[in-house]
Amino acid sequence: MRRLGSALLCLSLLVGCGPTSPSEPSTPSEQPTTEVPANQDASLTLTNVDVAPECQGILTFANTAAPGTLDAYLPSDLVLNLVSSRSTAPFATLAQLSAVHLMGPVRLTQLESGARANGLINSSCVGILDELAVSTDDAAAVVSLVNTVSSSALYAILPYAWNGATNLLALRPFTSVQAISNTSGIGAVSLRNLRNAANLGYALEVLVSSVNALPEGNWTVKMDLAFDIQSVMNGEYGNDRLAYAQCFGIDPATFPNNRFTNRPNLADATEVHNYVSSAANTYAYQGQIPTSVINDGLDDLDARTAGGTFKGCHIGYNDGPWAGIQVHFFVNATTGFRILTVQHWVE
User: Sign (positive/negative) of CA torsion 308, 272, 155, 98?
Assistant: First the structure.
């Protein structure tokens, strides 16, 4: 799991993720596992997509099935909407399918049934759970992760679903990904985070949680992997003393004022690495986070961003005469992976 031993040990010592020890649910093992899951050599979904390769037949069915065939599985008015949407552009993601008017979780499951009945998917595709089409290999990896990961690491993987993480810890071991999906507090974002962590590693989440757990000082850094672009541009981390705002790949119509500018070129993986590394290494210099945790997190970041192009913004605020705020965020133009750093300094 990508040299996570030192990162997880640090996280258990540094990060108060979730409940404190007295109220934290008891688990079979609180120590990070270094064992390789039995399905490690299986075909896993190694990109942040919402349809596993084994489940692509669901999209094929939605894109190619005749209206009469679709009528056997979906209401006629939804079929009309679906056919109209695909005539403009074929569906490439489950999110695009979900956006079709009248399409909801039940209808997606019915569409999946049609794909299965017509031989476009087989038992290697578990099906659609929480807006994620999961393969059997992905499912096994998620179950293995949830059953063996330390509590502190699980809270790092699910930073916005602490109740869900607590419930998983209390209810494990699990035998199916369906049971994990049905756990209270686990939704679409949480299940996707678990799938990505199981397949791609989670050293980046450990780094982000380690950074965010540190107390504020004269130079404070925060990171986020699940932010809203518009909220950030509207001043979520700043105030009305905007110093500069340079964006790239962002629709100018969404700019909150005319001081925002757009440069012509998107960011690449190197630019993303440099800004995140600069923010994280603030604490390496101060000795507050071990270098191994930072290096493992940056390696994980590099693996997730390799070859990608990114939209985003660099925003600066003057927070009084002797203080400032720097905000940098990047969003992969294809996969939607995102990361944000905020640095607040006071002299």
Answer: negative
Centroid of chain to Cα 102: 26
Q: Are 62 and 83 in contact (CB under 8 A)?
A: no
Instruction: Pick left, alpha or beta for residue 285 (phi over 0 → left; psi -120 to 50 → alpha; otherwise beta).
Output: alpha
Tell me which DSSP letter residue 51 carries: B
Determine phi and psi for 32, rounding to 5 degrees: -60, 140
- Six token digits for residue 255: 């700019």
121 in Cβ contact with 55 (< 8 Å): yes
Q: What's the mean pLDDT when you consider all of the chain?
A: 84
Q: CA 247: distance to chain centroid?
A: 22
Looking at residue 23, what is its pLDDT? 29
Whether the Cβ atoms of residue 292 and residue 309 lie closer than 8 Å to each other:
no
Distance CA 43, CA 219 (A): 44
Torsion of CA 195, 171, 148, 192, to 10 degrees: 10
Q: How far is residue 9 from each of residues 14, 59, 143, 301, measured CA to CA in Å?
A: 9, 42, 22, 19
CA 206, CA 28: separation in Å to the nearest integer?
21
> Confidence band (pLDDT; 50, 70, 90) for 12?
very low
Q: Is the peptide bond before 173 cis (omega within 30 degrees of 0)?
A: yes
Measured CA to CA, the distance from residue 65 to residue 164 in angstroms comes to 37
* Residue in this structure with the two tokens 């603030």, named with its chain if needed: 282
Does residue 44 register a pLDDT over 60? Answer: no
Residue 5 burial (CB count, 10 A):
14
Go through the chain and tell me how many residues it has: 347
What are the φ/ψ torsions at residue 200 (nearest 5 degrees)? -105, -15
